[in-house]
Amino acid sequence: MAERILVVEDEEPLRRFIARNLSARGYEVQTASDGYEALRRFEEQAPDLVILDILLPGLNGLEVLRRIRQVSLVPILVLTALDQEADKVTALDLGADDYLTKPFGVGELLARVRAALRRVRWSEGTGGPGILRVGDLELDGDQRRAWHRGEPLRLTGKEFDLLYLLARHAGRTLSHRFLLQRVWGPEYVDEVEYLRVYIGRLRRKLGETGDHRHLFTEPGFGYRLEG
After folding, report:
1. Is the pLDDT assigned to residue 125 strictly greater than 60?
2. H or E stretch including 133?
3. Which of 88, 66, 68 lies closest to 78 in space, CA to CA?
4. What residues are paired with 76 via a beta bridge?
5. Which of 26, 93, 137, 205 is the most exposed place for a label (fewest CB within 10 A)?
6. Predicted TM-score of the model (pTM)
7. Which pLDDT band, with edges at 50, 70 and 90, does 227 fall under?
8. Distance CA 60, CA 35 (A)
9. Rounded Cα gap, residues 40 and 96, in angstroms
């Protein structure tokens, strides 16, 4: 079955350009031109990937992203303009998996789409039997669920993948390159900013303080998880 992609973009020429090139590669493509239509399409189609412009009429892309993340872990690739650096960070903080800066070419678009869908397939195979326990953390690789001090953690798919990988190697410092390659893919081995954002999100969700920490930074090298 063809993988389903929802393209949300208000500029018709760009929306048609993206949809045409994805359809030509065998993807099943649905489109939306504003935020409210995007949410309706998302509920109706349950896509495997969402390509989401940030600047949308009606309901902006960041709000669409926030609402989708309340109900789904579907990978989301956001589209931004060159001068929207703050929006890129905000989108990652809200749960976006990746971003693509306008203008972009067909090759870069297709590479990002392949990488996002490949990470989903990899994520579905990262689990294993039983539960990993690291101090007061528990992670179930089969159900892709996590608990901290007995309370469930609400994690995005990428947050779970990163935390699970660190837990499997608890006590060892894993390099930026290793983490990026395993969680995001080989195309992202230099995107250290992704790790900074996601580690920060995990720290907030774990309620880390100076006296109670699980995640430690080895400056210039990587991160490790301790019990």
Report:
1. no
2. strand 131-134
3. 88
4. 50
5. 26
6. 0.63
7. confident
8. 6
9. 19
Poorest-confidence range of 16-30, 53-67, 203-217?
A: 203-217
Distance CA 52, CA 11 (A): 12
What is the structure's pLDDT at 23?
96
8: helix, strand or coil: strand
Inter-CA distances, 97 with 78, 130, 133, 210, Å: 8, 27, 26, 29
What is the mean pLDDT of the segment spanning 129-141? 82
Rounded to 5°, angle at Cα 135 from 197 and 219: 35
Give the C-alpha separation, 95 to 45, whole Å: 20
**Which residues have C-beta within 8 Å of that of residue 216, sequence separation ≥ 6?**
173, 223, 224, 225, 226
Nearest-CA neighbor of 191 among 206, 207, 199, 180? 180
Both tokens of 190, joined, read 């230099």
Phi/psi of residue 40, nearest 5 degrees: -65, -45
Contacts of 125 (CB under 8 A, 6+ apart): none
